[in-house]
Write a structure and sequence with these properties.
The complex is a heterodimer. By secondary structure, chain A is mainly β. Chain A has no helices and twelve strands. Classes of the chains: A mainly beta, B mainly beta.
Chain lengths: ~110, ~120
């Protein structure tokens, strides 16, 4: 079946530090990959996506590259801000099908 | 445009009681999803509707959970009777088919259920 594994949190960083949140997946075929973000008290928001191998998704300074050979979709940001503090979810979706989420990684950024 | 609306935002009930959650998707979104998010875990799909028909309810505990989407617009999820392990956030999402056949999902704020 399909599954997503994320690094456990919380990830604690100082403002302007470099961020990496690891995500690996298991799936049949070639799924689309997503990162969602959940700010405190809010619903999930799509952060970025990639639909095929070697695609790079990017948004708000965050990036992730679809690596088929390592079945990974790691999230990166060069310089985090306090406002980036949230829970980040990696997810996959085979075509025409529903989302399978990882457990989420909490990011805490201090000034 | 207005986002996905859910109510109530919070609900506390005793075990064996009943509870219902309501969701109004984004206008024009044919697909509607209900997810259960237990603390410390990612959302898990309970049921997916396409218009007013069920596409996938394989993970819905049908002995106690039910959902309907009459007229293909808003939806109600019910739990009867509730158990302690049903304590979670219940998320509603809706989607419309986008480019490359990817169904981009938009989530509501969720209903936090506490069963005591």
């Amino acid at each position: 079946g399909n599954s997503v594994t994320q690094m456990e949190g919380p990830v604690t960083l100082s403002e302007e530090a470099f961020l990496t949140i690891n995500c690996t997946y298991t799936a049949t075929g070639y799924p689309s990959l997503f990162w969602y973000v959940q700010y405190p008290g809010e619903g999930l928001q799509l952060l970025l996506k990639a639909t095929k191998a070697d695609d790079k998704g990017s948004n708000k300074g965050f990036e992730a590259t679809y690596r088929k050979e390592t079945t990974s979709f790691h999230l990166e940001k060069g310089s985090v801000q306090v406002s980036d503090s949230a829970v980040y979810f990696c997810a996959l979706s085979p075509r025409y099908s529903t989302l399978t989420f990882g457990k989420g990684t909490m990011l805490l950024v201090s000034p | 445009e207005a986002g996905v609306a859910q109510s109530p935002r919070y609900k506390i009930i005793e075990k064996r009681q009943s509870v219902a959650f309501w969701c109004n998707p984004i206008s024009g979104h044919a697909t509607l999803y209900w997810y259960q998010q237990i603390l410390g875990q990612g959302p898990k799909l309970l049921i997916q509707f396409q218009n007013n028909g069920v596409v996938d309810d394989s993970q819905l505990p049908k002995d106690r959970f039910s959902a309907e989407r009459l007229k293909g617009v808003d939806s109600t999820l019910k739990i009867q009777p509730a158990k302690l392990e049903d304590s979670a956030v219940y998320l509603c999402a809706s989607s419309v088919r986008g480019r490359d056949t990817i169904y981009e999902q938009y989530f509501g704020p969720g209903t936090r259920l506490t069963v005591t």
